[in-house]
# Entry
Amino acid sequence: MYTTEFVDVPLGELLTRVQTLKHQGMRFIQLCAEFPERGIGLLYTFYDETCDNALNLCVEVPEGAEVPSIQGLYFAAFSYENEAHDLFDVNFVNMKLDFGGHFFNLAETAPMTVISPEMKAEREKAAKLRAAKAAKEAKAAREAAEAKSADRALTEDRASADAAAVAAVDAMAPKPAKPTAEERAAQMEAKLAAMDPEKAAKVRAALEAKAKKDAAAAAAAGKAATAKDGE
Amino acid sequence: MATRTVIPFGPQHPVLPEPVHLDLVVEDEHVIEAIPQIGFVHRGLEKLVQKRDYNQFVYVAERVCGICSFGHGYGYAAATEKLLGIEVPRRVDYLRAILEELSRIHSHLLWLGLLADGFGFESLFNHCWRLRETILDIFQKTCGGRIILSICIVGGMAHDIDDSMLRDVCQQLDELKRDYKVIVDTMLNDNSVKNRLCGVGYISFEDALELSMVGPFAKGSGIEHDMRTTGFGAYGDLEHFQPIIATEGDCYARCKVRCEEVYQAIDIIKELVAKIPHDGIGGKPGPKVLPPENSRAHVLIEQPRGEAFYYVSGNGTKYLDRFRLRTPTSQNLAGMVRALQGVDLADVPMIILTIDPCISCTER
# Structure
């Protein structure tokens, strides 16, 4: 089974691409014009020698643009180019065999570019359906975003309220009273009793030395204050 | 220096069953240049795809041509199924291939009759068209119609052809083969036929390749391109398939290729009937199955006159944006112009007949 590939090619690069394909030995299958909503496009189809792989070059043709003819490379394209000219008003240049708009004897110019009322109605209906679907999707997305932001705000509110409540509870809770010197001494004695006796003796000696030092400092401060008062 | 004259050939001419016009620039009865013109019966059927939904359009596609009508319905349906992503049952592929091969026999017998009539062999014309009636009777019995079969729909077949009927078809083809052999042997070995066809309208292998020619016209110059070799549809299940080619590149070579293709088509039908599976015949897709927006698909099918290209593009609605049918004849116009260069004026009808242009297909 063969593979099919559609490649978009700018109009300016068309001839170079077709030349490359010709040198690669690709077979020219067909050229057709089409007129979808976005404007006139050309589709060049090529197959490789084994007929297994198809390559389609899709070319968008701006209004009034000149399209280079590929008849010099693939003469079989003459009927398709003249047909595209007569039916779609595509302006090909440098054609080897140019029928000048008389390849098909048609009553009107570019009949294939006329959009039928049925097609127009169907396209409008499809466009409305597409717009409705897009609006529905946008609304759903907006609602989802709003719901998400509301959730986030609620979570943040809850967190701040919780923090305030915790602070209030903390403020209301009774603060523990500062321990007195006797209580501190009793706590220390309990700790020292649980310690290794040798280490406890050292700690006790250090504490006594610190107490003496504090007492000496206090006595010195008291003398200095008395002398100042006497002056 | 000889005087150049332009002789208008067609669109009404005894050897042309369909309207094509040629401006033949002649010099001493030698054709120097031929410029073709078509467009006398252009019907704009491709445009109708925008007014008929994709299920209805298969009946329009069939009416593109009265000779390969089934093939056009088949090609359109296959391309649309590819666009919609529908996979049909294998039985559908087999039935389609069988009917396509019957169409090939019918087309080649019709052509052979016209060729015989073209060079004045009227009894051969009568015999060929008598045999062609057998195929039309098979169509009528199996499908209900003789020319427009209306059996191929998007997604499958409108109705089944049962196995006993298919076996009966094979028997009729055996009888046809016996009669056909007598006719073909007579024609291909006749001296007057050889005198008119051998060495006339020569196209070399290189020219055939250069001009992208297709079908028996290209095969007569040694080109082996045949879309049945790609395994499309049920053709991939054939045990042994080789395109029939000839290397002489003249009118006689093209005749030989077509005559041999009738035998090959009969063998293909018998092989497919022997192998046909029983997995249903599919059906029309539901109303909610629509082609995706900006979707495109194409297929190539080997019609009696060569490969035909079917392209469809969707826009998300039940109406397709574009249906494109590139017929084998459109592709062979360039080859026809080349084959006519330098020939005698008296040989022009024979050359055109052996190319077998189908202007109805081209003027879709």
